[in-house]
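Notes from hallway chat w/ T.B., transcribed later so I don't forget. T.B. wanted the structure written out for a chain they're using in a teaching module, and asked if we could keep both sequence and structure tokens in one place. Agreed to drop them here.
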Amino acid sequence: MSENGNDTAATLEVKDLHATVEGKEILRGIDLVVRQGETHALMGPNGSGKSTLSNVIMGRPGYVVTQGSVIFQGEDITKLTADERAKRGLFLAMQYPTEVPGVSVVNFMRTAYQAVKGEQVSALAFRKHMKSQMDRLNIEDAMVNRYVNQGFSGGEKKRNEVLQLAVLEPKIAILDETDSGLDIDSLKLVAEGVNELVGPDLGVLLITHYQRMLNYITPDRVHVMVDGRIIRSGGAELALELEERGYEWTREEVAA
């Protein structure tokens, strides 16, 4: 039984994962398990491979798995395309969301929703679903009528990603440095949105460089990634220890 008490919880399992980017090995044997209903934080210094791991899990082109596998709900998805993984219930909130000029947020999300769910939905039915999630996250109508991320502040881009997460209803979400570039007020708003969505139906892998995001989102588990490997795991207190001592002490412990 999973930690959240749900026998049928979807599980993301990364097994001995090695991966290269442009011929350079970045991931050097990652083992990680995230279940629906759990919140995990993956921390590490810049260049440790955190974002590479998120892209490999989602099947982004250009990231080559040389060894190991990604298992989701008991299925080996290592060779599936990104859209096939999304249809199965995986979601990635990107560190640097891209602009889509000429396409409104509401139209973009309706297209994504239909692609992920594999069914057509009327504009009225989708708008009702989306509005319920907007109300839940305190997001105003004006934002979803704008073009996707065009002219958005850093905080608006990240809140838009959280709205996508709410609308698409994945089983496991990977949030890649959602706190990147946010001031403290924007950080609080984004964290409030994530906390609103966290629950038995959603597992979260929160990738972050700093402990500050974890002041607002309390993880069940914290993992430390250095040089393409997860070298330490623990409870939420591990993040506080990292904040106090930095990452160098973890390297020293591994060397010892």
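Follow-up for T.B.: Residues 123-137 form the longest helix (15 residues). Might be a good example for the class.
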